[in-house]
Design goal:
The complex is a heterodimer.
Chain A lengths: L4 E7 L2 E5 L8 E7 L10 E7 L23 E6 L2 E15 L16 E8 L1 H6 L8 H7 L5 E3 L21 E2 L4 E6 L8 E4 L7 E6 L9 E9 L10 E7 L4 E6 L6 E6 L6 E6 L10 E9 L5 E8 L9 E4 L9 E8 L4 E9 L8 H7 L7 H11 L6 E3 L16 H12 L2 E4 L6 E4 L1 H8 L4 E4 L20 E6 L4 E5 L7 H4 L3 E6 L4 H16 L8 E5 L7 H6 L5 E5 L6 E13 L2 E10 L20 E3 L9 E5 L15 E5 L2 E8 L9 E6 L14 E4 L8
Parallel strand pairs in A: 23-25, 26-31, 27-29
Antiparallel strand pairs in A: 1-2, 1-5, 3-4, 3-32, 4-7, 5-6, 6-7, 8-22, 9-12, 10-11, 12-21, 13-18, 13-22, 14-15, 14-21, 15-16, 16-17, 18-19, 19-20, 24-25, 27-28, 30-33, 31-32, 32-33, 34-35, 34-39, 35-38, 36-37, 36-39, 37-38
Helix pairs in contact in A: 2-3, 4-5
Chain B lengths: L18 E5 L3 E4 L12 E5 L5 E14 L3 E12 L8 E4 L8 E7 L3 E10 L7 E10 L5 E14 L1
Antiparallel strand pairs in B: 1-10, 2-10, 3-9, 4-8, 4-10, 5-6, 5-7, 5-9
The chains are: A mainly beta, B mainly beta.
């Protein structure tokens, strides 16, 4: 079978095909997915281009491609019309044969030249990014236009507090004792300033504002405070704004009945009018709060005031306040930030106009660090924010594990956290330079319900090795919440339990939204994932020349797919594909899947004809010979094998022998004894069994997570 | 709750049948503090459901039928480990525990009460067998009590 191989490179705004005639190497190879040891790795393509002119040498000034190609040039390898892998060229390496001599007058060319290409998936580039991402609040505030914005996340050594709007002036600390980067702040923030001592007004600093022209007729402000443990004994003031008409606007968060308030002081500075609401359950002493207020300049001034507490489902009860006719609030010209001792405040923002409306969920969700966000949604959002607008996704991103707050970390670590928390497959698209996320629910619904059945040895080429070892095995699993609590699961009994083989420990770090309820379940899930008895089969190879009928499916098989190998051992082997390597020449092609045992991929489906309930604690009540067809079975309380004629036959297993059940009596007596009529040795194993031998369903089904 | 990757068993999510035993025998002249079971013993054996939770209920009629003064009579349910009624370790003692599953009558001669009381008993080992029985007694009185129409019911809970 002849294979059509093309390598496409992107330059000058278009794809350019390097056809088969130009590809010089005997074979081209492409990999994607995880490495055989289960660790993530970027996709890759390696091939050699026949290039006598070294046109594809980015360092060759004589080439017409000079300046057009280089590191990060996108590339896609397509074999027989299906993409094997995609990525960015990470290395161009020109070379020539030792006898190379260009054509000259009277002599033809001797030898040849080439350029070796190494293409790496985009996750190679992302994976090397060490920089910590901006805190969610900072990113959300910078995502839309601001008049002025002071995150107050400045480093401890900073002499001023920066305004991140270009052209604006920084705010300077005006009182000594202000410690920068000292307070944890709200979840969506980096470290904020903290007051080091008790003074009557709290610590304050401020800045004059650069007034836009024309001055705004509507203006909005927002600020985030963490008042947990703050000293409210002398003040409850967090922010004060001075306006162009001499008014003074102050935001208060009281620990007493005053609640959350806006105070407006008239120009003469005598009377302060207060608008606000009691805090109810939103006690500023126990939670962080995001304040937003909007004011309209003019005679019919009306103020709007909202707050949202950390973790709340929405904004607190709206409060719109008309105030005395004739007031003209003006626009802000100067502000002061106040920090009560023990509290932290930051993300002071001014918006000129009513757009963007700060009372939308963009800012509030960032304030909560996106707690409760599905893993798939977070994965996509993080990549989109990093500039990757194309993210391959299979299944609904919303149907993924709900995550806890997004903590400060680098992009690759946060992406990994999403994938591990959801136990999804995070790899790369094969035909596009983009990350690819296959959710666990997608795999349940599409891969695990219909594994690819391969018959050994007909369909599988060597090497197909079986290794019984302790790789990827643990009988004690700790699932740890990022920066928080943890839960353990342990298998004590059985041939692989701690009582028999000692402890093999493993750690899984996740970030879930409900650790109290999720962690114990996740610990058991990961224990099941890592307590896989029996052998490993590190790889499965399909030789597309020997089995051309398998070529199409081999090309389409993605990371996360399930393979069922039959005929190799008495019972089928369920393997999960974790990586794919395709090596292709003009007349040969092998696709090798890196695999791991995955019996729990046989997930149950209610009322599915192929799925049955197992019976817990069933044992042989009397010894049987290798030929006996009547078996007495004792079952645990509440358990019994079905006796419904329509359910026959079904296959049970005892010590490696499979038996087809053709009849079963109803349970009776104290041990729920049932008598089974069986056909022996349906998998080729024949042996006698003693009293007490365990009997179970031959192919049990498993709970999806 | 099963976790992902657990094998699906037939009994998962299914509750064992509720059990109940009743007896109409009049037990008269009871004047001991107890707890005593009387004869016949009214008890049941049950299997703890996957949740490890059951509701144990006692029903009966108590009456002060002889003697003088005021009577303080109790009819309660006790839950123990194991499949032998009256044996095993107490896991719920409605007679002594507060709160407990017991019917109480405090009243004069010729008075009485017909009632039922129940408590949730949790922390049982799923699949293990337990037993529950009624017990009764009279506290600090010169009167005697009659107990009849005793019943004990155990409902597995999700």
């Amino acid at each position: 079978m002849k294979h059509v191989i093309t390598l496409s490179l992107w330059w000058a705004g278009a794809w350019h095909v390097i056809d088969q005639a130009t590809i010089m190497s005997d074979t081209v190879s492409a990999t994607r997915g995880y490495a055989p040891d289960g660790n993530p790795r970027p996709a890759s393509i390696t091939c050699r281009i026949h290039d006598d002119a070294w046109r594809f040498d980015p360092d060759n000034e004589a080439s017409d491609l000079f300046g057009l190609i280089g590191p990060r040039t996108p590339a896609v390898l397509v074999v027989d019309g299906t993409a094997d892998a995609a990525g960015e060229v990470s290395a161009w390496s020109p070379g020539q044969s030792i006898d190379y001599r260009p054509a000259a007058a009277g002599t033809g060319q001797r030898g040849w030249r080439w350029v070796d290409l190494v293409v790496s998936g985009v996750t190679r580039r992302i994976g090397s990014w060490p920089l910590r991402l901006e805190a969610p609040m900072r990113r959300a505030n910078l995502g839309t236009a601001s008049w002025a914005y002071y995150p107050c996340e400045d480093e401890p050594g900073a002499s001023v507090i920066a305004d991140l709007v270009p052209g604006n002036k920084p705010a300077s600390p005006v009182t000594t004792g202000l410690k920068l980067a000292a307070h944890a702040g709200p979840l969506g923030s980096d470290l904020l300033p903290e007051a080091a001592k008790v003074i009557p007004d709290g610590l304050k600093w401020g800045a004059p504002l650069v007034i836009p022209q024309p001055p705004p007729t509507v203006w909005q402000v927002s600020v985030a405070i963490n008042g947990v443990g703050a000293d409210y004994s002398s003040s409850s003031r967090w922010w004060r704004i001075y306006t162009s008409t001499g008014y003074m606007v102050t935001l208060y968060a009281n620990n007493a009945s005053g609640g959350y308030q806006v105070g407006i002081t008239e120009p003469e500075g005598v009377t302060e009018y207060l608008w606000g609401q009691p805090f109810g359950t939103d006690n500023p002493m126990t939670t962080s709060v995001l304040f937003v207020a909007r004011f309209t300049v003019g005679a019919t001034t009306m103020g709007r005031f909202r707050w949202a507490t950390q973790g709340a489902a929405g904004w607190a009860t709206p409060a719109d306040y008309p105030w005395p006719a004739g007031w003209n609030i003006g626009y802000p010209v100067r502000w002061e930030g106040h920090v009560l001792p023990g509290g932290g405040a930051g993300h002071y923002r001014f918006v000129a106009g009513s757009t963007p409306d700060l009372v939308d969920d963009t800012l509030r969700l960032a304030f909560d660090a996106y707690g409760g966000e599905p893993a798939g949604v977070r994965f996509t959002r993080l990549l989109n924010q990093a500039g990757f607008t194309d993210v391959g996704f299979q299944c609904d991103p919303a149907l993924t594990q709900l995550m806890g707050p997004q903590l400060a970390d680098s992009l690759p670590e946060l992406l990994k956290e999403c994938a591990v928390t959801d136990d999804a497959v995070s790899t790369e698209l094969r035909g596009q330079v983009a990350p690819f996320y296959r959710t666990r629910t997608y795999l349940y619904e599409n891969e695990y319900l219909s594994p690819w059945v391969l018959q050994y040895p007909r369909d599988i080429s060597p090497p197909f090795d079986k290794i019984t070892d302790d790789i990827e095995f643990s009988n004690v699993v700790r699932v740890k919440q990022r920066g928080g609590s943890e839960a353990f699961a342990q298998q004590t009994t059985g041939p692989y339990g701690t009582a028999e083989v000692g402890e093999e420990q493993a750690d899984v770090e996740v970030n879930v939204s409900q650790p109290a309820t999720d962690l114990p379940t996740l610990a058991r899930y990961w224990l099941n994932r890592r307590m896989v008895p029996g052998a490993r089969y590190p790889q499965v190879t399909i030789d597309c020349e020997r089995n051309p009928e398998l070529a199409t499916r081999a090309a389409q098989t993605e990371v996360g797919a399930l393979l069922q190998i039959v005929g190799f051992r008495p019972t089928p082997v369920l393997l999960r594909v974790i990586g794919v390597t395709a090596v292709t020449g003009t007349h040969r092609r092998k696709v090798t899947f890196a695999t791991q045992p995955f019996p729990m991929g046989r997930i149950g489906r209610y009322d599915g004809a192929a799925y049955r309930y197992d019976v817990r604690g069933c044992t042989l009540a009397a010894a049987v010979t290798a030929a006996a067809t009547t078996w007495q079975l004792d079952t645990a309380p509440l358990e019994s094998w079905t006796t419904k004629p329509a359910s026959f036959p079904y296959v049970i297993a005892c010590e490696g022998e499979w038996l087809r059940v053709t009849g079963m009596t109803a349970p009776s007596g104290a041990t729920n004894r049932q008598v089974a009529t069986v056909v022996r040795s349906v998998n080729g194993v024949t042996k006698a069994h003693g009293v007490g031998a365990a009997v179970s369903l031959a192919e049990p089904t498993y709970y999806a997570r | 709750m099963p976790a992902g990757g657990d094998i699906i068993y037939a009994s998962d999510g299914t509750l064992p049948a509720a059990v109940q035993v009743a007896d109409g025998t009049n037990l008269t002249g009871i004047n001991v503090a107890g707890p005593i079971t009387g004869s016949p013993v009214v008890g049941v054996v049950f299997t703890a459901p996957p949740s490890g939770r059951v509701r144990a209920a006692v029903t009966g009629t108590l009456a002060a039928t002889a003697g003088t003064g005021q009577i303080n009579g109790l009819l309660a349910v006790q839950v123990r480990t194991g499949a032998v009624i009256g044996a095993g370790t107490l896991v719920h003692d409605g007679f002594a525990a507060d709160p407990g599953a017991r019917v109480v009558f405090i009243g004069p001669i010729n008075g009485g009460v017909c009632g039922s009381a129940a408590m949730m008993v949790s922390g049982l080992t799923p699949g293990a067998q337990y037993n529950a029985q009624t017990v009764h007694g009279v506290l600090g009185t010169s009167a005697a009590m009659t107990v009849y129409n005793r019943a004990v019911t155990v409902d597995p809970l999700p």
